[in-house]
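Bug #77: duplicate submission created two jobs. Keeping one. Sequence:
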Amino acid sequence: MKKHYDSLDFLRGLGIFFVLILHTSFYFYQDIYDVDLNNPSPIITVIGFLLMFAGLFAIVSGISHTVSFLNYGRENPRKRLGYMLGQGALLLVIAYLYFIFTGPGIIHFETRSMDESLFVALIRQGSFQPLTFDRLFYIDSLVMIGVNVIFISLLLFGLKKLLDKPKVHIFVLIMATVFMVVSYIRIPLYEVYLEARQEKNY
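Kept job's structure:
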């Protein structure tokens, strides 16, 4: 099996490029608070849609770690499992430190305000902004990738005896599809979460 895929490097570069361009256009747009989210312009719709397509990073991460496990995990799957679990945990730590100290702002359209990270608030306002519930529990792309690595490592370790079977890729595809479909439960659950927060029913 190949150990390096130029196409994955291309997707990584494409993802990073769009992160820089789209986040800059979103967070530094001077009329951001006046955007009509109920009737957005075509360009706002396109930018908003692309901003939410962080799934590209999950796809690249999933493929990369699967290939890595297949290349290096067959001889000692337990060691590879520990390595990948450590990677996932480290990503989660980095994700939360990044978002608390230097992460992008969380826009509150109703109050025309920005929930900024500690260092960004210090630079822009001259003082630290108190940490909020939203920032502490925000799930960004790095959190998604960290959880993805942990899930992939556990899945592949569980399938270690089947990895040499000719149709194992079909089984992995089915499991990934089921997982993706189940993940859509988060959409109706988000309203439940917002109501619980508003009523402080934790």
